[in-house]
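Hi Q.,

Before the meeting this afternoon, I wanted you to have the magnesium ion prediction in hand. No need to reply - just skim if you have a minute. The sequence and ligand are here:
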Amino acid sequence: MPHPLSKYLRLEVFPNPFCAGCGHGILLTAILRAIDDLQIPMKDFVFVSGIGCAAWIPSPHFAADTLHTTHGRAVAFATGVKLQNPNLKVLVVSGDGDIAAIGGNHLIHAARRNTEMTVICANNAVYGMTGGQSGPTTPLDCYTTTSPQGNIEPPFDLCKLMDGAGAAYVARYTVAHIHLLIKSIKTALTNPNFSFIEVISPCPTHIGKMNASLSAVEMFRQLKQDYIPLAKYRKMPPEAQRKVKPVGEFVK
Ligand SMILES: Cc1ncc(C[n+]2csc(CCOP(=O)(O)OP(=O)(O)O)c2C)c(N)n1
Ligand SMILES: [Mg+2]
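Predicted structure with the ligand bound:
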């Protein structure tokens, strides 16, 4: 029996390029499930990505119009698409390096201008495709190929950044919160404003290997321990809050 989502895929490009245990494949499925639930035809979408492992989520996998652009410029290309044809649904899917490092300025100004699009940042806390360098969301003390003694730079909280820049919808989930993530993608796709979703996606190949040789399974367990629903998080004492991060809808 064919997979119920296979009608949305270019099956000839499979198997996909993601490493075993990478969260990006789960995010790929979550996006397609949201689109399937909403019954929005693929011809209404343009999917835009930059360069990186996460940029492969829509392109070449989605059987739709996809723009696989240059590193850091996905939101800029997406803005151009939306201006040219406002009837299109524009969905940007790309990595933390792409969206928040080299592409950070495009991101904050699209939020400030309330350009109608959804931006999904697949945050694996590292430049995955280029060999595991630290980036703007790498946690303090985390070992990467460019922080062999532990990362000394504090990471951005992307949701706070987007809130501050004026985004109309801001949420964070992990790939271990799949039902809430699909619901959030549906909310974003039906919101006629700038929407931002940060999706925490484990990278066992770089972060796992460099940090206590965490396996993919252990990294998934850690996601469930470390990311706490917002309502519960708000009731925690400050010392306990410092050890975890909230998931949920921060701006709606
Ligand atoms: C202008 C430019 N600078 C740098 C690169 C090299 N480069 C390609 S992908 C990438 C980082 C990808 O990291 P991220 O966006 O977090 O995606 P991931 O691979 O982690 O999913 C870099 C630095 C490039 N292709 N173009
Ligand atoms: Mg990354």
